[in-house]
Amino acid sequence: MTTTTDPTFYFTIEKPGMAEFKERGSKFIAYAYPIETVDTFKKLLQNLKREHAKAVHHCFAYRVGTDGNSFRVSDDGEPSGTAGRPILWQIDSKTITNTAVIVVRYFGGTLLGVPGLINAYKTATTLALQVVPVIQKQIEVRYTIHFNYTQMNEVMMVMKQYNCTVFSQELQLFCHINAGIAKSRLQEVLYRLKELQQVEVEKIK
């Protein structure tokens, strides 16, 4: 995967998209999804397998994270290298991450051969990625923030001011927030939080 020139941002797709490609009777339906985690992808794949239970193949590729190391491909019974890899090539050619593409194939009775399959999976993926906008997002570092309920307004003000993403929160007498802090503003946010009395900040590994 090609990395962006600015190490504080990455590119991904804005929303799900779908496209269909037909080749000698076979139908290839490509679904593109923005994803944050592998668990999210697994749920999407299960849903599609239920929705397209009569399809012969559910091939896919995904890339998650910004270090370029977290990806997976699956040919799901197609000849090795004819489905998952061509799908991943198209994801990488757009220099995007946190993206998954699942291509569902309904067999049309005619064998396409290795070149035909590579072209079909590549084309279906390209068409699906063409219908969704690519957006730039901030790379975030995940932290858990612990604080007393009385400090809620101060902590939330910092979260809002720096556009932090709050993934989950437990707000009782003693509160916990699981948040993503933009890498580009990390030092400022940590400084502001540590200025507050009795606020503990813990990096999520």
Structure description:
With 205 residues, this protein is α+β, with helices and mostly antiparallel strands. It folds into 2 domains: 128 residues, Ribosomal Protein S5, domain 2 (2-Layer Sandwich), CATH 3.30.230.30; 64 residues, Ribosomal protein S6/Translation elongation factor EF1B (Alpha-Beta Plaits). It contains 5 helices and 11 strands. Strands 2-3-6-4-5 form a 5-stranded antiparallel sheet, sandwiched between helices. Strand 2 and strand 3 form a beta hairpin. Helix 2 runs parallel beside helix 3. The relative contact order is 0.18.
How is this fold's topology laid out?
Blueprint: E1 9-13, E2 17-23, E3 26-34, H1 38-51, E4 57-64, E5 70-74, H2 84-93, E6 99-106, H3 113-130, E7 134-138, E8 140-148, H4 152-161, E9 165-170, E10 174-182, H5 186-195, E11 200-203
Antiparallel strand pairs: 1-7, 2-3, 3-6, 4-5, 4-6, 8-10, 8-11, 9-10
Helix pairs in contact: 2-3
Name given to the CATH architecture of the largest domain? 2-Layer Sandwich
- Helix content percent band: 25-40%
* CATH fold category name of the largest domain: Ribosomal Protein S5, domain 2
- Radius of gyration over C-alpha positions, nearest whole angstrom: 21 Å
Distance between the termini: 23 Å
- Encode the helix/strand succession as letters: EEEHEEHEHEEHEEHE
CATH superfamily of the largest domain: Impact, N-terminal domain
What is the total number of structural domains?
A: 2
Question: What is the tally of helical segments?
Answer: 5
Portion in strands: 35-45%
How does the overall form come out from the CA principal axes? elongated
Main β-sheet, spatial strand arrangement: 2-3-6-4-5
How many strand segments? 11
Mean pLDDT: 93
Uncertain spans: none
The CATH class assignment of the largest domain is: Alpha Beta
Main sheet characteristics: 5 strands, antiparallel
Which class of secondary structure composition applies to the elements? alpha+beta
